[in-house]
Amino acid sequence: MRRTFCDLGGFLFVVLAIGLIAAAGQAAAQEGAADDDYPLLGEFRGPISLEPNKYQPLALQVRPTGGGNFQAIQYEGGLPGEGLLKGQPVNFIGRRSGDFLVLSGGPWIVIVETDHCLVLDRHGKQIGRLERVERVSPTMGAQPPKDAVILFDGTSTDQFTKATMTPDGLLMQGADVKPLFQDFNLHLEFLLPYMPAAKGQGRANSGVYLQNRYEVQVLDSFGEEPVLDGCGALYRFRKPDLNMCLPPLKWQTYDIIFTSPRWASDGAKIRNARVTVWLNGVKVHNNVELADKTGSGNPEEPLLLPMRFQDHGNPVHFRNIWLIDRGLAADGRFPVYPPKPEPKPEAKPEPKPEPKPEAKPEPKPQAKPQPKPESKPEAKPEEKKPAVEEKKPAEPKKGDAPKPPTEKPAEKPAEKPVPEKKEAPAQKPAEPKKEVPQQPAEKPASEKKAEPAAAEQKAPAEQKPAEKPAEAKKEAPQQDKPADAKPAPAEKPAASDKPPAPETKPEEQKKAG
């Protein structure tokens, strides 16, 4: 009995010791950023000049390997994922000296500082300067669409059969998803620990197992060339097109489109599985066909299995995990990119609706003057009929009204002479042609004084209406202004010729009596 108790106590001690060692290893992995090598880890980019006035872009990825030793890889044209890569990568090695690093092994020497690199030729002449670059995945922080299934948002592990969440709301490796999915679009974010002395598969290793059969590798392979078991690889099946792994302790993203294989009722496979993978926003696998399971995944069969986040003993953390079940939700745009707040304020100050109100009032004032009030003044001269104006010469009678005895007897004898009536029918519209000065023709005393003045005024008055009696009816608006305004004053002086008549009136009245 005592021996059994001792064995049990020893077993518990061993388990406790292993747990403490693992926890210490995780803490060391996270606190490794405090060493002197970490500040020199990262990406650098800039131009170098090999000939006068000729430059070419150069990029460098530097990573520590422990104990002050470093490795680096040089890319001509730019960093992976920038679409400018040329030629083959060049590998460097180096050792830290104080707070800077000297790299060699290529066609030049590189001195690495915390914020930049100096590139020197074999004679020690500076030919370029590379600046530090901090890249972030364009899908970092992508929010799930309406129809998405949220697997982990830092609040709980309800969507997992087994899972552990850190106090700061991160999911630890070794978690199995509860729901089963066939075809889906998956988004997740992961953080690699800093383990500079580790090598190969022991350097921040984990994996995303799709249906627990097909593994998308998670590993700290920053600063290395693409390999079959590196980060972004379909484990031991296909290496990524580019090594888009970022430095450790930097959040990274996976966006995966997975289509499950199809099976017949007899268990025969009809169609292989397919997968498309984006690592940090760059496509590294494009609709790749999976003929079988990858690595140590479970064998293929017409049975759905859960998704798993592998536990390989390294403290890899995950967050913001969600997927779109394409069997339930519409297949929209994927990957999902978070909105950029910067272009929005730029679009607001652009005043484009201003020209529209300016164009609208322009046709309105044009439509209003279209009625053209000019037509109304045209109608007004039509209203000024010659008939009304022809009656105006009769108005001098009103002026002569104070002398009714002289005008009335003058009108009556004017109608008696027959020869003068022949011209009268042609001049009917012009009745104001009074032959009053002709009546005293029978009276020899007044003919000598009144006839010369009346004859001169009657001649133009008789000729003007005689020439335009017929035209007055057709072209009435044209005769209104010249014909009507001038003859009126011509007839008035005819009445002014009568003052000599009053001198003879007493004599003429006696004779008339």
Account of the protein in words:
The chain is an alpha+beta fold. Among the domains are: 38-133, Beta Barrel (Lipocalin); 149-339, Sandwich (Jelly Rolls). 27% of the residues lie in helices and 26% in strands. The protein is built from 13 helices and 22 strands. The protein has helices spanning 2-31, 343-347, 355-359, 363-367, 375-383, 386-390, 396-399, 404-415, 444-467, 471-474, 476-485, 487-496, 500-512; strands at residues 42-51, 54-66, 69-76, 86-97, 100-104, 109-112, 116-120, 126-133, 149-152, 160-162, 171-172, 175-177, 184-191, 206-210, 214-218, 252-259, 262-263, 269-271, 273-279, 282-290, 308-309, 317-325. The strands form four sheets. Strands 1-2-3-4-5-6-7-8 form an eight-stranded antiparallel β-barrel. Strands 9, 11, 13, 16, 19, 20 and 22 form a seven-stranded antiparallel beta sheet that branches. A five-stranded antiparallel beta sheet has the order 10-12-21-14-15, with no helix packed on it. It is globular. The N and C termini lie far apart (185 Å). The model is unreliable at 1-32, 383-394, 396-415, 419-430 and 458-499 (pLDDT under 50).
Précis, in short:
By secondary structure, this protein is of the alpha+beta class. It contains 13 helices and 22 strands.
Give the secondary structure arrangement, pairings included.
Layout: H1 2-31, E1 42-51, E2 54-66, E3 69-76, E4 86-97, E5 100-104, E6 109-112, E7 116-120, E8 126-133, E9 149-152, E10 160-162, E11 171-172, E12 175-177, E13 184-191, E14 206-210, E15 214-218, E16 252-259, E17 262-263, E18 269-271, E19 273-279, E20 282-290, E21 308-309, E22 317-325, H2 343-347, H3 355-359, H4 363-367, H5 375-383, H6 386-390, H7 396-399, H8 404-415, H9 444-467, H10 471-474, H11 476-485, H12 487-496, H13 500-512
Helix pairs in contact: 9-12
